[in-house]
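stage 2 :: seqdesign
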C-alpha cells in the first residue's frame, strides 16, 4: 500500500463549509486536503439544489447552489488544497504520536495534525432498489457508481433509472459493453434533453435496448448476477445481465462518522462555540454536522464557525507561535498568501 499522505489538516466533506475551511485555514498557513464521497464539490448546494437561488449569503443578494460552489472554489484556489472526490472517509484514529490517521474506502490514507469534520447531513449514499437479495451482488455485479469503466468491457449491462446519471452512463458505457439495456419505469426522462436525444438515437440503431418497466427479481450465484426479471406492460421478461447499475438518487446518511468514537447527540456532533472542537482534542466539527445552543443550519453560520475554528487549529499546528489578528484588506502578508500582491 502507498504511504499515507502527510498534511496539516484533513477536511471531511467538500460542502460549502468544508470549502471555506480551506480558506480560513490557508490564511493561518495550514495546508489541507479535502475528501468527499461525491464526484463534485459543493455538498448539498451542488447535489440537491444546484439551480435553486439562495438569498441569504451576505453580499450576494442571489446566487444558485452551483454558482456559490464555483465562487468558493475560486476563492480557495490560492491555497492549492487537494480535493479527493469520489472517496469516503471510513476510519479515523489517533496515532501514538498524537496525530490522526484517516482512511478512505478506496484505501487512501492521510496522516495529519488536525481533522475538520464538515460532513453536513452525512455522506451521500445511493438509494437501494427494494429487491430481495440485492446485498449479495453489491460491489461486484450491482454497482451504484463506476470507478473504472474497463471493468464493464464486454459485459451485459442493465442500467436502471431516468435521470442524468442513468443517461450519462448509458452513453458512456454503450460503446464498450457487450449489450446495454436501459430500464425506466416511464417513457419520460428527467435527464438533459441532449442526452435523452442521443440515447433515443442509439435505441433506433439497435445499440441500446430501452425497456419501460421495473426490475422485480435478481438471479445469480454468489456475488455474480446472471439475470433480472423485468415487469413491463407486456408482462414479465427475464433478461440475461452481468452487471446492474441502479441510479435511484442519493440520500444523506450519517455513515462512518458515527464510528469514530466522538460524542454524538441525535446524529450531530456537539461542539463548543469558541473553537468548534468536538469531545476529542484536535478534531473539529463545522457546518450542518455540529450542534450547540442556538445552532442554525445555515451556510453563513458555517462560514463563521470555520473562522473561529482556524484560530484554535493554529495552536495545534504551530504550538507556541503567536497568531496576529489581521485584515485581508490591509495585511500585505495575507495578501501575499492570496496571491494578490
Ligand atoms: P453539506 O453541504 O451537507 O456537505 C457535506 C459533504 O460531506 C457532503 O458532500 C457529503 O458527501 C460529505 N461527507 C459526509 N461524510 C463523509 C465522509 N465520511 N467521507 C467523505 N465525504 C463525506 N442554507 C442557507 O444558508 N440558505 C439557503 O437558502 C439554503 N437553502 C437550502 C435549500 C435546500 C433544498 C437544502 C437541502 C438546503 C438548503 N440550505 C440553505 C442548507 C445548506 O445547504 C446547508 O446548511 C449547507 O449545505 C451545509 O454545508 P456543509 O458544508 O456543512 O454540509
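stage 2 :: out
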Amino acid at each position: 500500500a502507498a504511504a499515507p499522505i502527510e498534511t496539516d489538516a484533513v477536511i471531511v466533506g467538500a460542502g460549502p463549509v468544508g470549502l471555506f475551511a480551506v480558506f480560513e485555514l490557508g490564511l493561518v498557513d495550514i495546508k489541507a486536503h479535502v475528501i468527499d464521497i461525491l464526484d463534485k464539490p459543493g455538498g448539498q448546494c451542488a447535489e440537491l439544489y444546484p439551480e435553486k437561488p439562495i438569498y441569504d449569503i451576505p453580499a450576494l443578494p442571489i446566487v444558485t447552489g452551483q454558482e456559490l460552489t464555483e465562487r468558493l472554489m475560486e476563492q480557495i484556489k490560492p491555497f492549492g488544497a487537494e480535493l479527493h472526490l469520489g472517496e469516503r472517509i471510513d476510519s479515523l484514529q489517533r496515532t501514538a504520536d498524537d496525530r490522526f490517521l484517516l482512511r478512505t474506502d478506496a484505501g487512501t490514507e492521510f496522516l495529519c495534525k488536525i481533522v475538520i469534520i464538515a460532513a453536513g447531513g452525512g455522506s451521500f449514499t445511493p438509494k437501494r432498489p427494494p429487491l430481495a437479495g440485492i446485498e449479495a451482488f453489491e460491489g461486484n455485479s450491482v454497482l451504484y457508481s463506476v470507478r473504472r469503466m474497463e471493468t464493464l468491457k464486454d459485459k451485459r449491462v442493465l442500467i436502471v433509472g431516468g435521470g442524468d446519471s442513468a443517461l450519462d452512463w448509458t452513453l458512456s458505457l454503450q460503446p464498450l459493453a457487450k449489450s446495454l439495456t436501459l430500464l425506466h419505469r416511464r417513457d419520460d426522462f428527467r435527464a438533459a434533453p441532449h442526452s435523452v436525444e442521443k440515447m433515443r438515437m442509439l435505441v433506433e440503431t439497435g445499440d441500446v435496448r430501452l425497456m419501460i418497466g421495473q426490475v422485480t427479481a435478481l438471479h445469480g450465484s454468489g456475488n455474480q448476477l446472471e439475470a433480472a426479471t423485468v415487469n413491463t406492460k407486456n408482462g414479465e421478461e427475464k433478461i440475461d445481465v452481468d452487471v446492474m447499475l441502479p441510479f435511484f438518487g442519493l440520500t444523506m446518511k450519517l455513515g462512518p462518522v458515527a464510528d469514530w468514537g466522538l460524542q454524538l447527540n441525535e446524529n450531530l456532533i456537539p461542539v463548543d462555540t469558541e473553537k468548534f472542537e468536538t469531545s476529542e482534542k484536535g478534531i473539529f466539527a463545522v457546518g450542518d454536522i455540529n450542534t450547540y445552543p442556538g445552532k442554525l443550519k445555515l451556510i453563513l453560520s458555517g462560514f463563521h464557525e470555520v473562522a473561529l475554528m482556524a484560530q484554535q487549529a493554529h495552536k495545534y499546528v504551530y504550538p507556541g507561535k503567536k497568531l496576529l489578528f489581521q485584515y485581508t484588506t490591509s495585511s500585505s502578508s495575507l495578501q501575499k498568501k492570496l496571491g494578490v500582491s
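stage 3 :: structure notes
- The chain has two domains: 5-124+251-338, 128-248.
- The chain has seven helices and 19 strands.
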